[in-house]
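Below is a typical protein record.
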Amino acid sequence: MVDDNELERLRDIAVPTPDGEAKARALAAAMQAFDLDEKNSPVAKGTPAGLRLTERAQKLWRDIMQRKLIATPAITALVALPIAGYAAFEMLKEQQPVMGGDNGKVTETLADKPAQKRAPEQPAINAPLTAAPAKAKKTDADAETLANSQMAPAAPKPATEVDSLLKQEAAPEAMPAPGESGQLAAGGKAGSPGKVQFSPPLKDEAAGADQAPAGSAAAMPASPPQVADSKLMVQPPPMPADQMQPREENRDRIETFKTNPVHETAQDPVSTFSIDVDTASYSFVRRSLKEGSLPDPDTVRVEEMINYFPYDWKGPDSAKTPFNSTVTVMPTPWNEHTKLMHVAIKGFDVKPAEQPKASLVFLIDVSGSMDEPDKLPLLKSAFRLLVSKLKPDDTVSIVTYAGNAGTVLMPTKASEKQKILAAIDNLEPGGSTAGEEGIREAYKLAQQSFVKDGVNRVMLATDGDFNVGQTDDDDLKRLIEKERKTGVFLSVFGFGRDNLNDQMMQTIAQNGNGTAAYIDTLAEAQKVLVDDASSTLFPIAKDVKIQVEFNPATVSEYRLVGYETRALKREDFNNDRVDAGDIGSGHSVTALYEITPKESGGEQVDPLRYGQAKVDNGGVANADEYAFVKIRYKLPDEDVSKLITTPVTIANEVKSFDAAGADQRFSVAVAAFGQKLRDEDQTANFGYDRIAEIANAARGADPFGYRAEFLSLVRLAASLDGSK
């Protein structure tokens, strides 16, 4: 055993100075070891093989951008989010000193541990990236060399799937395992190929998310991850302009339909359809044209374009008959071989003093999808206009829905105007869209405030993006059919675009004893909710159907212009259980048939070679009639229909198109425009200039400027279409 005193003595002895020979031997040994190490490993001492993780993230980002591996902006966001979070996480780790602990010992860091053996908490993805402390002072030359090495594009490689590239670039070290929740996925199950995932946020980040406004989108990185090093900030090169992705296609849901065909009268003499007083299509077409694009043909419903305009048709003499019909036969301006049979219906105009009390439930969509200037803000302004139009004894209730539905305002007299307006002004968007729950709540409230012998109506304002509860159109249709039996009518007002569910709105409006309108501007809100308030709010007839029987002796063929989505079976006409359109106070409804007179030379269908090719009308009554028009309707509070009939004879015919009334001619111009936008064969050779000429000549009294605006739309369409 060594004596402690001996140890103390040895410690105090001075270390002998090495002589020259010892120094030479030590230097030779060091050089030999250095040369041997250089042969075995090309990597400098103290430097891990390959790029640092943050550098790999940048290289991956550059490869993605330069090789155009991302197909859409949505996938770009999916990839950017985990890359940004991962780079931030690794940079925060690098801030920890390598040397630490007691006695100068080397301390193991998180970066030294295998990824599969830990479940690290990642920093908030949107947190600012903090520069790692510089380990050595860098000169300007060093910074320039580093910038050139990191900014240089990678050698060209064939484009691969995103997941393959991720595996290739992350091969040296495993990526952190994704959490069980909070995953951002491109499709499939968690952890499966083709996924881009991120781990759950930190507790502080989750708390911040809970405090964010409902319906607001999570912030996404505006640029690829950045590396801060001393004075140098290195970024991947920007994507060239020619590689920028086009704007994502809008997600409007529009019902597709085929244009009505030509029917041969001898084989199919009867045409049946429900009337349509909706105007949504015209507003949608106008918005498209004013934004510089021709409308999708399926957004063009010709009858809604025609019925957008007020017409001075002859109305009924008294309220006992809710409407009057006028039929005019005239030459067709786009086909010299055919004629137009123009059927005009005018509803009885209820005087303001005679209008019944109204109980209105505003059902307002306040989901996150409504957070656009042309949605909830415009909606609020529109309903403020309507409130100013109501009488003091009318009642207003407000139901809103987002993730769930709730009553914002219990039934309140319109005399308390400021209370109603304050409730409207306080509406804010956020959350998902539980439209079905909102509909149920609104009808329930309408029953609570039901006015006997008055007007009871739910007024739904939405972009139609239902995504919670019943979202299928057929399910919603059945719900509305059930609720309409309570005597509560429904109006639907669409707002916004790129997410508009026009198909759903048409479905529930048609089956809820109501109408549908599309509000794209405050001026349109003024038209629908103020100028046309009587026809919008006060029904005078419901389930109105039209059936026309054509005489094969005088008409070879016929074609109904528009009303494709309102077609009914022949037997539906006399079935009072079949729902149809409704007419409000003062409403104008127009229907046009293009007919081919017998032996005019304009037939499009060849006669049959075998069998009865013609009809012998010798001695048959009414052989001189063109057609027989029948209209069925119910009064708002009745369930049994009444019938109005009108024979169409030569007495209804005018000799020339110019001899027809101004309103008839203007409505024909609108019909031609609608068919032109749908690219129908009948108007293929009928120019926009001719449409504008007819409309301008028939402009007549235009106190609100609607017809002047129509002329401007025709000119816009001509410019966009490039046709004459």
Summary: The radius of gyration is 38 Å. Confidence is low (pLDDT under 50) at residues 42-49, 96-236. Residues 53-223 form one domain. The CA atoms of residues 43 and 138 lie 21 Å apart.
